[in-house]
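seq as requested:
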Amino acid sequence: MMYWIVFAFFTTAETLTDIVLSWFPFYFELKIAFVIWLLSPYTKGSSVLYRKFVHPTLSNKEKEIDEYITQARDKSYETMMRVGKRGLNLAANAAVTAAAKGQGVLSEKLRSFSMQDLTLIRDEDTVHMRGHEPQLHPSGGSLLETIEDSGTEHPSWATV
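struct tokens:
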């Protein structure tokens, strides 16, 4: 664990030093040698750096670090609650708007049908229930005339 903490600091420092010192002769070779020194179990470079620099600094700043963590946790909770409420409000508004628009489209679609179109749809559904295909006449006959023209007797429920 000590290695990874020291390596994280090295990576952060490396980002800045690459820009400034990359022109220096043998810079990249020195970086490789430093990483090998950190990793080597014989030199225990990461353990040395951690115990001399990182651990004392973290111990001195422990209370401040804990306060920052507490503040970050509180702010993140408040932010998530605010974002969550805003998201739920947006979703509810979108659902209500979609429902209102959908109802308006449906009513406009139904208004576009004429009464004759609606009676033909009803007549076709009734005939399909009995298993017969409707025979529509240009004269605009009713369901009763369609059944009588097919040569079958109409049941008692079809009489007017």
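The radius of gyration is 41 Å.
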